[in-house]
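Why do we care about 3D structure at all? Because function follows from shape, and shape follows, mostly, from sequence. That is the central idea of this module. The next example makes it concrete: a single protein chain, its amino acid sequence, and then its structure expressed as tokens.
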Amino acid sequence: MSIGSDVYYTHKDGAYVAADEGDFLPFSWFEVVSKVLLQVVLNIPSFVKDFIHAYIWAPKKSISGCVALVSGGGNGFGRALCLSFAQEGCKVAVADIDEKGAIRTASEIRKLGMQAVAFYVDVSDLKSVRQLRKEVELKLGYVDILVNNAGLLVDAKISDGADEDVRRIIDVNLTSHYWMIREFKPAMIKRNSGHIVGISSILGFYGTFRTNSYCATKFGVRGMMESLNEELYFNGQDEKLFATCVYPSLIATRKDLMKTAKDMGILMETMYPEQAASIVVKGILQNKREIILGSFLVRLVIKLYVFLPIRLRHITTSCIIGDASRSSRLTNGVE
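And the structure:
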């Protein structure tokens, strides 16, 4: 069944027809539960295998000789990812709107004896992304590992910023993932090999105040990558093509970011970019579907956060973020 008919992409006045009771889908809890139980029994060997790979031991694939493309690879976490891929024997395409930063990272990789090329790209611009694909394939070959890392972190409430600023955040942080995947995925499908990585955030699990546009885009990346994983599975492509979503917490990249975090009194585990990149690349080698960058306790809290009562969520966020006015409101019972 396809829902890609013209009615979803075009508008025609008066074309809307409301559904009635005769259009309802047949549903039976008994049928659903019985089908699920049957599939659970049939998949017990797969569950055992998944458990072993997740908690005991997982085979690692080799990516030596592969082409890895990292957007936002000129600085910070992206730079560390580029260097980690190079250490695994990859040819690295360093893509960034900061062309000087990309050139610097590529130079560092070449000093390690590995092949790397810097590319200018504005990931929010489809034409720029299309040009990037052509140049990378010409100079390095088909992309085997695509890492959508480029992003903008903005401290802003929903009414803050100019209209064009909000649009820029959404285009860079979310829309760009679509452009990059739509441009590079077809060649992966044709070659029946590839790995797509989307960098989300722990704020893709829960929203906080003052980061509205950022949270919205990171929730979007999370949903998009989960949907992509399901698409690969149901298309029978998940044995050769893989999708991984990464959820970083606080990574010590920009000096101004760390100063702001200190001034705000944020209480959060901090990672060096190299440490975070090493964990991500290791997860890619194991074809992990999800990578949360943090200790076991951090990962547990993130997973359980959605189940907390709303007041406990507010208290937890206030204590982590360190905003005095919010803490005061909660303590005084104003919330």
